[in-house]
Amino acid sequence: MHAEKVEIFSDGACSGNPGPGGYGTILRCGGKVRELSGYAAETTNNRMELLGAISGLEALLRPCRVSLTTDSEYVKKGITEWIDGWIKRGWKNSQKKDVANRDLWERLLALSRKHEVEWHWVRGHAGHAENERCDALARAAITAGRNQNNG
Fold first, then answer.
1. Average per-residue pLDDT in the chain?
2. How far is CA 58 from CA 51, 61, 65, 85, 129, in A?
3. DSSP readout, 27-66?
4. What is the pTM of this model?
């Protein structure tokens, strides 16, 4: 069912937290590479990290086997370790408070169920080529978004 293997790399960045933010995503499949990025005028780093992963999965047109690499422990642990408990507790965290970014977690969960996703974490800013490129895409999106808003 999940024939194609797709590699997705994603990163998010924020200038201030909260503040203007961006994400960068790379999709690689069968020798083809596609880069995505996006901007939000007022957001948080965690929201941009989530949107990087979401944008990559949303770009897939059919169910795929996916290797998704992020430098965000929040994203990786959230989707692989914490989310089942949040759902059981009615979207409350371990402190019985509302889970932050629930809207994005619900989107990510729905997308991850359409695909066979392996989640991977890499240390940010440690020379991982695709992670560095995603960071550059995210920062460029912030610059472009600021320029557009000021222009």
1. 95
2. 10, 8, 14, 25, 23
3. EEETTEEEEEEEEEEEE-HHHHHHHHHHHHHHT-SS--EE
4. 0.95
Check: CB of residue 24 under 8 Å from CB of residue 137: yes
- Looking at this protein, which amino acid is placed at residue 1? M
Q: Which of 1-15, 35-49, 104-118 has the lowest mean pLDDT?
A: 1-15
Tokens of 112: 């991850």
CA pair distance 17, 132, nearest whole angstrom: 20
- Distance in angstroms (rounded) separating the CA atoms of residues 135 and 140: 9
The CA-based angle 102-103-109, given to 5 degrees, is 80
**pLDDT given for residue 4 in this prediction:** 74
Residue from 101, 96, 58, 98 nearest 79 by CA: 101
SS3 13: strand
State the catalytic residues.
11-12, 49, 71, 125, 135
Angle at which helices 45-58 and 102-114 pack, to 10 degrees? Answer: 30
Residue with token string 């203007």: 20
